[in-house]
Automatic annotation (TrEMBL):
Organism encoding this protein: Rhynchospora breviuscula
Catalytic activity, as annotated: Endonucleolytic cleavage to 5'-phosphomononucleotide and 5'-phosphooligonucleotide end-products
Record carries keyword Disulfide bond: yes
Cited SUPFAM superfamilies: Phospholipase C/P1 nuclease
Position of the signal peptide: 1-26
Recorded family membership: Belongs to the nuclease type I family.
UniProt keyword terms in alphabetical order: Disulfide bond, Endonuclease, Glycoprotein, Hydrolase, Metal-binding, Nuclease, Signal
GO BP annotation list: DNA catabolic process
InterPro entries documented for this protein: PLipase_C/P1_nuclease_dom_sf, S1/P1nuclease
Top-level taxon: Eukaryota
EC number in record: 3.1.30.1
Protein name: Aspergillus nuclease S1
Gene Ontology molecular-function annotations: metal ion binding; nucleic acid binding; RNA endonuclease activity; single-stranded DNA endodeoxyribonuclease activity
Enzyme class, UniProt record, top EC level: hydrolase
Length: 251
């Protein structure tokens, strides 16, 4: 193997500690699923084999099926909640090594999606949009939820027959080799990549998420049609970068 996965995940989590919020669960099930589904298609044969060996039997070789695992275990493993916004706890190293690598894979896959959701680096005063009430096509929700799930679910309903796989395939088909090169330009420097992703998310939060979305705003087609391409791009970027990380880990 190349980079240690445990080292990568610890560095990646700690680098984003200052920008993530404990009240914010970036991307819903759909967004995380698509990030991992797309990423798996970009793995090298070596990385793909390693990932398949680490996935639990119930995943049936599908990384996407485990991409929301990090959210589902918060109740069973209270210590894991902290991993979403502070350093890895010291006692993580006491787990069985093989099991620890499996969990590290699923945490890293989840966190890579998390940090690409713009409001995961949103403003502290509104908890990343959680305290901003909005009406999504007249249904009361909050701005963070719009970016977590509503935009994606609207796209799935309108264009993809409510299929996560179909939407993921569409996003994949529109990723160019030039984009892959640009998105992975930070190379093997974890800190540089973290800075790049955080900067992108902050800019997207300011330029798209918060813009024209004050408290009690009614958001519909105008907001959706101008923001859904941003969401699709962030999913694509998260997927490509996740694949790049895994390809560097498993060489």
């Amino acid at each position: 193997m190349g980079l240690s996965m445990n080292v990568v995940i610890a560095i990646f989590v700690s680098l984003f500690a200052a920008t993530t919020l404990p009240t914010s669960n970036a991307w819903g099930t759909e967004g995380h699923y698509m990030v991992c589904k797309i990423a798996q298609s970009y793995l090298t044969s070596t990385a793909s084999s390693a990932v398949l060996n680490l996935l639990p039997a119930g995943a049936n070789g599908d990384l996407a099926s485990e991409c929301s695992w990090a959210d589902t275990v918060r109740g069973a493993y209270p210590w894991s909640s902290a991993l979403h916004y502070i350093d890895t706890p010291d006692n993580l190293c006491t787990y069985d090594y093989t099991n620890n690598l499996t969990q590290a894979l699923m945490f890293l896959s989840h966190f890579m999606g998390d940090v690409h959701q713009p409001l995961h680096v949103g403003f502290t005063t509104d908890a990343g949009g959680n305290s901003i009430t909005v009406y999504w096509y007249n249904v009361k929700t909050n701005l963070h939820s719009v970016w977590d799930t509503k935009i994606i679910q609207t796209s799935m309903s309108n264009y993809f027959g409510n299929s996560m796989d179909t939407m993921a395939n569409s996003i994949t088909a529109n990723i160019t080799s030039t984009q892959i090169s640009q998105w992975n330009s930070c190379g093997s420097s974890t800190s540089a990549c973290a800075d790049t992703v955080a900067t992108e998310s902050i800019q997207n939060a300011c330029n798209y998420a918060y813009k024209d979305a004050p408290n009690n705003a009614y958001l519909s087609d105008t907001y959706y049609l101008s923001r859904s391409p941003v969401v699709n791009t962030r999913i694509a970027q998260g997927a490509v970068r996740l694949a790049n990380f895994l390809n560097q880990i498993f060489v």
